[in-house]
Amino acid sequence: MALIVKKFGGSSVATPDKMRAIVQRVLKGKQEGDKIVIVVSAMGDTTDELVSLAKQITSKAYGREMDMLLSTGEQVSIALMAMAFQEAGQKAISFTGAQAGIKTSDAFNKGRILDLEPNRIMEALDEGNVVVVAGFQGITGHGDITTLGRGGSDTTAVAIAGAINADVCEIYTDVDGVYTSDPRVVPNAQKMKEITYGEMLEMAKLGAGVMQPRAVEMGSRFSVPIHVRSTFSEDEGTMIQEVCSMEIKQYLIRGVASDKNVAKITVLGIPNQPGHAYKIFSMLADSHVDVDMIVQSVRVAKEGVTDITFTIARTELPAAKDILNRLREEMPVEDILVDDKMAKVSIVGAGMAGHPGIAAGMFGVLGDNHINIEIISTSEISITCLIGEESVDTAVKAIHAHFFDEH
Amino acid sequence: MALIVKKFGGSSVATPDKMRAIVQRVLKGKQEGDKIVIVVSAMGDTTDELVSLAKQITSKAYGREMDMLLSTGEQVSIALMAMAFQEAGQKAISFTGAQAGIKTSDAFNKGRILDLEPNRIMEALDEGNVVVVAGFQGITGHGDITTLGRGGSDTTAVAIAGAINADVCEIYTDVDGVYTSDPRVVPNAQKMKEITYGEMLEMAKLGAGVMQPRAVEMGSRFSVPIHVRSTFSEDEGTMIQEVCSMEIKQYLIRGVASDKNVAKITVLGIPNQPGHAYKIFSMLADSHVDVDMIVQSVRVAKEGVTDITFTIARTELPAAKDILNRLREEMPVEDILVDDKMAKVSIVGAGMAGHPGIAAGMFGVLGDNHINIEIISTSEISITCLIGEESVDTAVKAIHAHFFDEH
């Protein structure tokens, strides 16, 4: 007897036939006494279609009304999924985010789950229902509908699993687990049996697309084991959890990630006085442009000025450029350089902390391949190098070979 | 400065262009200080499409999950309408039925509004918003979404107008008002400037499709003036209100209505003992089959048995037949006859009460046209005759000519 949350994405529920297939799979795997919560996204392209409808009406397709609109996509899915379970003879009930007790901040389009009151879910499970919950949505303290932003359904599933103390949260996806690197780039990348929250979080932040960082964070906070597995096969996928088995721990490096959504901005000749760097980054923050890597360098040749280089997501470059143009008017700077052909390559592994040779190994591989490193940043369990976009696939392959082919 | 509720149906909001047209019309008519609530239905064929999707999943396209599904249609409309107002520079906010405070009974698919707490609507109006509310939906005491059944958006609009004490509730429709008879049948039917709730309720119940009886009832209960008018013209339509002007009161007859959705059932040879008629009608009521006209006749020739004839909506005939078949097994009856080619023709008018000649006039016209009357039923402000469907248009024309062409 187990308490399980299963999340299915939009492509898994795109048609009535696919919904029926999920119902069959869930009921086949259901043991006597199992309690099951299903979290679903909007069917197929529904969200895109709703966005397109909004864009025919307004140039401002965001804010409160956008969440009112988009949340209908998941609501359609849950109603149909509940009907599909009922049609198969299984008692079922659907809940919107609000009905499932998912309270969020009032940041429309990117709400954060603040609280989850699972009373109705638990009651419905106790009454023998499969409970079908709308992913990606919640409700503010004022009763307004919010959505959770990209990957929000994963976050919903993990948050519910945490709130009801589920045995496991299964994330069904179109890949069969988390790999040591992107299999499209590195054909001999290996599927991991296990990975820690910390490692997965780094992998996700550094470009491994299989799960959103916020969902992993939520799993870590509530110690929810997350099983990433394939919608299309019965095979075990990858288990994300706090502590991994000894067998796994011996690996110093768990994965090689890369991210091409990177732009580098250099502001030259900033007066080397307190407050100027703060000014730049506070202006970016006010416009919700996230800054990733930062390097400041004082010039030896010219006293009193400094250069600052930082990276942002390439998709945020238009917003950043607006801000930088305003900056020129407010602050004496020599020049602002933008390079939108950058990428990051990273190695991740909780075991690398006590092994200084790891970083040297990574830099050596890049050097051997004549790849110039522009910026290096490190965390306790990762090392990231900023390199030219054109070299990133070569870099990933070479680094993966260096750390994994030797084992 | 006025407080106005305006309701637009699905065909009026079928496309972004049509939504923009409504926004322009509403803003053009809006005086400084006016407070406006817009109630909308689902866009165009959305509801039909959702029903069709459900039918691909289940043979039981009704109940709680169906309301979860269908309510998304109106939610899409309100979000887009609010965006359209904002795009036109008008502050606006959308509310689902739940957010608008519309509490219903827990009868899914045909919820009745039990209470309406308009706090959020009033606050949003005070903040200068046009408030856009989803028609056709509400929420139960348990937080489950309900829909209000056919014509539900009219009921939503009138209920809100009552709760906020609006000056008027405008129902925009594809006809430009209420006519003395169906203009497709009677080309010289006249548009009424005014009609009382009671008269409109009878007209609606007796087949005048322009408004649902429940919405009219709601208007009467809260004394909300209802203005039925055209989406496509600026002309005044018909005002439904408690007391009409003297000019209007002089008319004895206000309209001629007809309804072809009628079937006649005759149960022959029922034992003439207490409890048998009760049995028949309680079985029908248990299955939600509404009985309209009823005639019981004791036979002179054969003692101890009676015949009962009654009418139901033709659309409920399949359900009724099931019940009647069970009846044959439980009660000794001679035979059950069904005639599904019947119709009703009615005259309505609050002024007819003190004028016995009116009924005689109606029967005379039918007799002159060789139309046989099967059953007659009367209320304080209407007379209805059951006749053969094939004669109904002739009857309506002749009765209309008799009562209106003389004036």
Task: Fill in the keyword field for this structure.
homodimer; 407 residues; alpha/beta; Carbamate kinase; 6-stranded antiparallel β-sheet; 18 strands; 35% helix; globular; aspartate kinase activity (chains A, B); amino-acid biosynthesis (chains A, B); ATP-binding (chains A, B)
Bin the helical content of chain A.
25-40%
Q: Please state the average pLDDT score of chain A.
A: 92
CATH superfamily of the domain at 3-173 in chain A: Acetylglutamate kinase-like
The ordered string of helix (H) and strand (E) elements of chain A is EHEHHEEEHEEEHEEHHEEHEHEEHEHEEH
CATH class category of the domain at 3-173 in chain A: Alpha Beta
Largest interface: A-B, 38 and 38 residues
Compute the CA-based radius of gyration of chain A: 23 Å
The appropriate CATH architecture of the domain at 3-173 in chain A is 3-Layer(aba) Sandwich
Structural class of chain A: alpha/beta
